[in-house]
Write a structure and sequence with these properties.
- The longest helix has 10 residues, at about 5-10.
- This protein has a domain at about 1-185.
- The N and C termini lie far apart (about 120 Å).
- The protein contains eleven helices and 39 strands.
- Helix 9 (about 600-605) packs across helix 10.
- By secondary structure, the chain is mainly beta.
- Strand 7 and strand 8 form a beta hairpin.
């Protein structure tokens, strides 16, 4: 009545106990004669029904898969379809591993057809290595194709497997079709995957004869990441390969995965890695919460400023090539390529760099024996970030960072360099070199908008000489002082081997225009009589524009502080002496000085031998003046005037100066 089913049962179902059996058969008249004539007996669902429960049985599944033992199931034969509804069972492997079977089915859908096919739908659970071993048997044989062995897997897997395959090889059945959906829990791979250690993996692995896909969360080299993976089962398959890894890296984690960026990128980075081919991958970085630092040109981006970067990487970890690099941010960006090794940046070539809206230059960086050679060229560069960094003392002699003994040599050739207060200098050429924190060379030349030259030369012994025919333009360019016009600048600075510097500043034939603090000094009523300095000298001192023959001071920088000693201004109508802290490490000023109207007359008194000793108190102390004090923030200091100093003789004036 069912010869093929009977043959399969005899060859694949063994032992066990049968209970609750029932047989229902109806054979229409004449069908037995047809069967005897060689046509065979084929009964439909209304003509034959056989059912029974089986316990403690052993059943062969398919191919080389070890049989299911201790099986509890229910068998049904309804017409041409035979179904074994499995309730539970265990499959034991030669290695000693085993997997448990939950509820599932084993179906022969058409027992009268050739080839004889079967459908299985099984729930399997067990340790990861045991389920991995199951995946090595025919007709699945997928684990070894992925390059792994059962010993490489640790954790737990709960799988749902479906398959459609032939039972009799003599009938030349078609290739098996199967799908596997596996829930992975706390999986560790003992062997690196793509050179990375995978651990604590939780997710879903789906497979079929063509492709395996993985959607999971795991730790890659100890870094939490999301994994979206698709791989062909056979290398020759046309199934698309895909690997997308998404992770947010802390600074320590980023240094572990991408050590070459440690000197350029700081803080956390959100990263998306997408496979392009066996050697290349696309990298997308969200740098909003990161700090970027390009110390060779003094540019940095703080955390919280939106920025993204995308590039293509290839090659081994000790020589990674980065192509098609694109940095994008609000008002800044760069396009180029880099090579990064285990020790950091090897080389970089950026065809376009815009670190501000005013930038338009190219940048090349090469590293040799731990030293960097930097070349900058183009139409324009915004120098304001560099100037601000130098003025703030970042990277100075007391910086907490360790620059070590790394050498940096910068060569620049730019049509224009943009500074503060709408000032720019043209035809800029420079050569700068540093060894660690120490400046070795600072040579440059340029031309101001007024056509005057600006030249810096560094001589042996660490002496820097800066000269210009337009001191006012240089001062505004560097945002040091906005009210000076013209003047011959001579600045000599000597660098100290212990850090810091000292030198002299000498400016001749210049003007001070529209200085509000100067106006306040001469017009503010002070003292019991509430008289201003204008009233004391019985005239209005013109503060809109004052010419000076010379300004001189000794300048000192130590520990992030810039100070002035023995400062003197000598003009046609007014003069001043001053000293103190121009800017401390916190950006504050604390200066004192003496302001003197009718400076020429006062200086004449001071230079007379006897009167000068009694009243003048030195060649730069006048007869009539007022002492003042500037304190507070460098950009907006507070002005205080000592009311007791008005018209006091020069010999007594130092008594009233601020201490």
């Amino acid at each position: 009545m069912a010869p093929k089913v009977r043959t399969w049962v005899h060859g694949n179902l063994f032992g066990g106990t049968v209970t609750n059996a029932s047989i229902s058969v109806f054979i229409p008249f004449g069908r037995l004669d047809e069967a005897a004539g060689g046509k065979g007996l084929k009964l439909d669902a209304n003509q034959i029904r056989i059912g029974f429960d089986v316990a403690d049985a052993r059943m062969n599944i398919a191919g080389d898969i070890p049989p299911v033992r201790d099986m509890a199931a229910h068998f049904d034969l309804i017409g041409p379809a035979a179904t074994i509804a499995i309730k539970s069972g265990t499959s034991f492997f030669p290695s000693g591993r085993s997997v448990g079977l939950g509820q599932g089915t084993f179906i022969l859908p058409a027992t009268y057809d050739k080839p004889l096919m079967a459908d299985i739908d099984l729930a399997i659970s067990g340790s990861a290595d045991a389920v991995g071993e199951l995946l090595t048997y025919r007709p699945i044989r997928v684990l070894q194709r992925a390059g792994f062995t059962p010993d490489d897997l640790k954790g737990r897997i709960d799988a749902h497997v479906k398959a459609h395959f032939g039972l009799l090889s003599s009938q030349n059945p078609p290739p098996a079709e199967w799908t596997a959906e596996m829930k992975l829990t706390d999986i560790d791979l003992a062997k690196p995957f793509s050179g990375r250690t995978i651990s604590n993996l939780d997710g879903t692995l789906n497979g079929n004869p063509k492709q395996i896909t993985l959607d999971a969360k795991a730790q890659i080299d100890g870094v939490p990441a999301d994994i979206d993976l698709a791989e062909p089962v056979e290398a020759s398959d046309s199934a698309k390969r895909q690997r997308v890894i998404t992770a947010t890296l802390s600074e320590d984690q980023r240094n572990k995965l991408i050590p070459g960026l440690s000197g350029i990128v700081g803080g956390s980075v959100k990263m998306v890695l997408t496979r392009i081919d066996d050697d290349r991958q696309d990298v997308q970085l969200d740098l909003t919460r990161s700090q970027l630092d390009l110390p060779w040109i003094g540019w940095s981006k703080g955390s919280g400023i939106a920025a993204t970067a995308e590039f293509e990487t290839s090659g081994p970890a000790d020589n990674t090539e980065i192509k098609n690099f694109r940095l994008k941010g609000d008002g800044f960006g760069a396009i180029g390529s880099m090579n990064i090794g285990k020790g950091g940046l090897i080389s970089a070539d950026f065809d376009s760099v815009k670190l501000s809206s005013l930038d338009d230059f190219a940048l090349s960086v090469k590293r040799s024996k731990g030293n960097f050679d930097v070349s900058v060229s183009g139409d324009s560069a915004d120098a304001r970030p560099v100037i601000a960094r130098l003025k703030s003392g970042s990277g100075g002699d007391d910086d907490d960072g360790d620059a070590g003994d790394t050498g940096v040599s910068v060569r620049a050739r730019l049509k224009n360099v943009i500074g503060f207060n709408d000032e720019k200098i043209g035809n800029f050429q420079a050569q700068v070199s540093l060894r660690g924190d120490k400046l070795q060379t600072l040579n440059f030349s340029a031309v101001t908008d007024s056509g005057e030259a600006v030249v810096s030369q560094m001589k042996d012994g660490g002496v820097i000489n800066v000269t210009s025919g337009d001191a006012g333009a240089v001062s505004r360019f560097a945002d040091l002082y906005q009210h000076m016009q013209g003047g011959l600048l001579n600045l000599a600075i000597r660098l100290s081997p212990q850090g810091g510097w000292d030198g002299s500043l000498d400016v001749r034939r210049f003007s001070i225009v529209n200085e509000q603090r100067l106006r306040s000094i001469v017009s503010t009523p002070v003292g019991n009589e509430q008289r201003s300095l204008n009233e004391a000298v019985k005239r209005d001192i013109d503060t809109s524009s004052q010419r000076f023959q010379r300004g001189f001071a000794r300048v000192v920088s130590r520990g992030g502080m810039v100070g002035i000693e023995n400062g003197v201004l000598r003009g046609d109508q007014i003069g001043a002496t001053f000293q103190g802290v121009v800017r401390d490490r916190k950006g504050n000023m604390d200066m004192t000085g003496t302001f003197m109207p009718a400076y020429g007359l006062n200086r004449l008194f001071a230079e007379l031998p006897l009167i000068g000793v009694i009243l003048g108190n030195g060649s730069d102390r006048g007869l009539i003046g007022i002492t003042f004090k500037l304190t507070g923030n460098f950009d907006k200091p507070n002005l205080q005037i000592n009311p007791l100093s008005i018209i006091a003789p020069g010999v007594f004036r130092q008594i009233f100066e601020f201490q």
